[in-house]
Backbone:
């Protein structure tokens, strides 16, 4: 039952703009699932759903790795500027420190930039690891990130 519910959640967030846990719970109920807010919250955590900004300045749940369109470049830079507290380069990895709870939003901004020298990000609660290839591009990417802080 849980795996079926998880598949339904993935289908829902891929096809609909779901902004809140209550909206997701309502969608699941319409599909015949009996769920509570606590169940939905646990499912979101287990599926590692993220919230990202849409082009019309709303927020929606998304599957990790799914490209959620950022409202605009200015907003993306604001998210980065307001959330990043420090950065450090080590070989081909840039460690980006953020305010608590902001790492996934910052990683989404980085991922949506589509820079070819960034091959991936991993976000925790307050840290984003950015993998850069080739290693020689690390200083250039760090410089771009610092420009977002100005």
Residues:
């Amino acid at each position: 039952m849980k795996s079926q519910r998880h598949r339904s959640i993935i289908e829902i967030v891929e096809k609909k703009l779901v902004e809140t846990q209550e909206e997701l719970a309502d969608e699941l109920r319409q599909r015949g699932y009996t769920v509570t807010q606590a169940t939905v919250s646990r499912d979101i955590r287990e599926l590692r759903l993220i919230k990202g900004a849409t082009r019309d300045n709303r927020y929606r749940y998304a599957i990790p790795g799914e490209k959620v369109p950022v409202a605009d470049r200015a907003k993306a830079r604001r998210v980065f500027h307001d959330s990043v507290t420090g950065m450090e380069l080590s070989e081909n990895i840039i460690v980006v420190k953020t305010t608590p709870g902001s790492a996934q939003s910052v990683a989404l901004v980085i991922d949506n930039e589509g820079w070819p020298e960034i091959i991936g990000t991993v976000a925790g609660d307050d840290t984003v690891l950015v993998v850069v290839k080739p290693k020689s591009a690390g200083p250039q990417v760090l410089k771009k990130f610092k420009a977002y802080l100005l």
About this structure: The longest strand covers residues 84-90. The chain has six helices and six strands. The radius of gyration is 17 Å.
